[in-house]
Amino acid sequence: MKRLYYFDNIKIVLILFVIFQHSGMAYVPVAEGWSPSFPGPLPFADVVVVNTFLAVSASFAMALFFFISAYFLPGSFDRKGRQKFLRDRFVRIGIPLFGIVAFLLILMAAVGANPATLNIGWLWFLVFLLILAVAYSFWRRFNVTIRPLSCPRNGTLMLAALALGAANFVVRGWYGEDQWVLWHAVEPAHVPLYVLFMIGGILAYRNGWLDEVSPSLVRTWGIITIIALCGIPVGIAALGVAAFGGGFTALTLLSSFWEAFLSIGICTCMLIVFKHRWNVTGRIKATLAKNVYTVYLIQIPIILFWQSRFIQGGVLIPGGLPPLLQFVLVGVLATAFCFLISNYIVRKIPYADRVIF
């Protein structure tokens, strides 16, 4: 299969959003359980800016990661067969997952922490990828033939957004955003979004949607995306983050449909624009792309280190910097260190390329 360079370039952008999203968690008042966190009151403008970024990032970044991951499942299964497909998935996903969890348990025991308090944390993405692989393999056992589906047009995407918004509202009536269950492995509020994009990735591969998708969709969904983006800071400034807290309320209904249209809008536009404008590679882009997965695995300790340094202050790092500036600096430094450590240390570990690359 010809390498899709625009997928590589999209993944580079997505991992940047993920790193900055986690970098911002220390600088918002609703990130329960995140430590370290900025002490004292947060300036109103900083809260609006950081929460706006977090809301946008959460609406599409991981969903598009799921779409890309699911897109390659059918071809991989066809080439390898069930046993080799599952074995490769468990090596590439299971070994990092269980290896990091084992390391964290050992670390917690060494410092006297209760291992029962361990949660999956940022590794929830790997749990979902394993479930996706197993579920897809199970589905293929039935040899179900699905008639070809034409590439979605505006009407189909609108219906998908409406269905996603309705599903979001039902789930968020019980679970607000950033409420996790099952050892932090599942955030119910975003499950409908992730499931939709996983199914979409598989269907896109089987039906050749990315070869047929019309660039004209960018006009419609670009306008929808811009309108949705403009409404976020206004809504957060006027209402705070109450709309993300869950419950069967008008605010939850509004945020559920807002995120649905924004998710599909951003992802549709990114896939089309990158396919037609940035389907190229180069030495730097190729290096960044091959490190994306490893960067995801190692990001949190590095982010926590820089957050603690800036919040506490110390050598070469002045204390008392504004939280918004700290957020930006943590994101930039964490990104640089993640890619450097991945490329020049982790990739040099013997046999690591058989597991995580």
Protein described:
Helix content is 69%, strand content 0%. The chain is an all-alpha fold. The chain has one domain (45-297). α1 (5-23) packs across α10 (283-290), α3 runs antiparallel to α4 and α5 packs antiparallel against α6. The longest helix has 38 residues, at 73-110. The protein is globular. It starts with a helix and ends with a helix.
Largest sheet: none
Give the distance, in angstroms, between the N- and C-terminal Cα atoms.
18 Å
Q: Rg from C-alpha positions?
A: 21 Å
Q: Provide the residue-averaged pLDDT.
A: 90
Unreliable stretches (pLDDT < 50, length at least 5) are none
Query: Approximately how much helix is present in the residues?
Result: 55-70%
- Structural class determined from secondary elements: mainly alpha
Number of domains: 1
What is the 3D form? globular
H and E order: HHHHHHHHHHHHH
Number of helices, where a helix is a run of at least 4 consecutive DSSP H or I residues: 13
Beta-strand proportion: under 5%
Number of strands: 0
Lay out the secondary structure.
Blueprint: H1 5-23, H2 44-71, H3 73-110, H4 124-140, H5 154-172, H6 191-207, H7 209-212, H8 217-239, H9 250-277, H10 283-290, H11 292-312, H12 323-344, H13 353-356
Helix pairs in contact: 1-2, 1-9, 1-10, 1-11, 1-12, 2-6, 2-8, 2-9, 3-4, 5-6, 5-9, 8-9, 11-12
